[in-house]
Amino acid sequence: QVQLQESGPGLVKPSETLSLTCTVSGASVSSGGHHWTWIRQPPGKGLEWIGYIYDDSGNTDYNPSFESRVTISGDPSKNQFSLSLTSVTAADTALYFCARGVTSGWNFDCWGQGTLVTVSS
Amino acid sequence: DIQMTQSPSSLSASVGGRVTITCRASQNIFKYLNWYQQKPGKAPKVLIYAASSLQSGVPSRFSGSGSGTDFTLSISSLQPEDFAIYYCQQSHSTPYSFGQGTKLEVK
Lengths: 121, 107
What we know:
heterodimer, A: mainly beta, seven-stranded mixed sheet, four-stranded antiparallel sheet, globular, B: mainly beta, 11 strands, 0% helix, 50% strand
């Protein structure tokens, strides 16, 4: 059974960097056929795809709306992948989910429970 | 970028009833359309992928149809656990995008 678990600070100050890690069990982040993804949801609002990392080479694809603020990286030795979002503002306050995208059906079939990150001084 | 528009934004229905939610893409996405269910405080769960394929373990009262720009999610014989928010999502091209959600409430 594949499980994903987000971890990281729940409070980040404006202009600082938001850093989250997703620990995966039951699957390998370095195996093919999957996109290891970050998605967020502001309180009371809809879902926004942030980006993903895929395949052994660590190739990434990001939502342009985050411009150059976002980096997703992988650590196969720990079976984890991480999100870094720089220069955060209150608009980045959201529930952050990590998820597995499957290329066989092009959907997000497994999700973490989500972690709330609040941007506030 | 592809915009996804769902309708209605909310609807109410009775247990045992049937509902249909529609999703429209701003351009042709073929059958690259997924449907998710989200309950309060929980992560979304995929119900339908590739427009009409039922995800393993999802009850057969859920069904999806459509291609191109217009898609529907139907739920027959509504059960108490079906009252939730439903999102469509296009996987045709990045940036992947979601509809704004449809809240299904008990009448």
